[in-house]
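task queued by scheduler; priority normal; single chain, no ligands, no partner chains; default sampling; output format set to structure tokens
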Amino acid sequence: MIRKICYSDRDEYIKMAEDFYASSAVSHPIPKNNFENAFNAAISGDPCIKIYIFEKNGETAGYAALALTYTTEGGGKTVWLDELYVREDFRGNGLGKDFIEFLKSDNTIKRIRLEITPENDRAKKLYSALGFYACDYKQMIFDRPIRS
């Protein structure tokens, strides 16, 4: 089952997000406060973020965090699949594939974009099988300095 996150998911979401950012699926850790901020934004209805919870057999099996935007290049509404995490005990059950198909079923979405680390062959294989292809852009970012 795929459902929007609710307030009672807070602790499980934060634990899963910590596990995700401690894995080889990402290139660096992030401050725990970022998980709290993402959760609070999603719960409050911020239009830029949605978080979904995956359940299997009544257990929380994973989550996905989406950033929502519009791109001229993509021709409309674009979903940035920022995080997709499936707990180890639930991997291999098609939950990641099911979530991608869930997104693809929304005809208002014109583009789904994501990033993977070069060594994440499992993710690359999954996404390639689902019709994703490499984008030759090199990303650059600007992070606002944290003020104390």
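post-processing summary
- DSSP finds four helices and five strands in the chain.
- The CA atoms of residues 18 and 32 lie 7 Å apart.
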